[in-house]
Design a protein that fits this description.
Elements (H helix, E strand, L loop, with lengths): L4 H16 L4 H11 L2 H14 L4 H37 L4 H4 L2
Helix pairs in contact: 1-2, 1-3, 3-4
Length: about 100
């Protein structure tokens, strides 16, 4: 399965932005690979355009911050889903015959 065109565009745009800032294309590819999703790559590209970081370390730090935000969001969504399922269990039981007697 190939990546959607919008993902490929975000990937190319991030790498191009990093390269235009004077860093090796491989650095941009490493950042894109670590970020992974279209949304995080676009967020990184926007950061590069607006903040104009002065070092590779600043770029890497922002990449790590974006990854951390993404990981927190994923954990939150998983917790919300688990909580919803737990509430269903509390409200409706396990669906056994014994539950019908209550």
């Amino acid at each position: 399965m190939s990546a959607p065109e919008s993902w490929k565009e975000a990937y190319r745009e991030l790498i191009g932005t990093v390269a235009r800032m004077g860093y090796p294309e491989e650095f941009g590819k490493a950042i894109a690979k670590n970020l992974g999703s279209e949304k995080t790559m676009r967020r990184m590209t926007a950061y590069l355009h607006s903040a104009k970081p002065r070092s590779a370390e600043e770029i890497a730090d922002e990449m790590l911050a974006i990854m951390s935000d993404r990981d927190r969001w994923i954990a939150k969504k998983r917790a919300e889903e688990a909580n919803a399922r737990y509430n269903e269990l509390l409200n409706y039981g396990l669906g056994t015959d014994e539950d019908d007697d209550l």
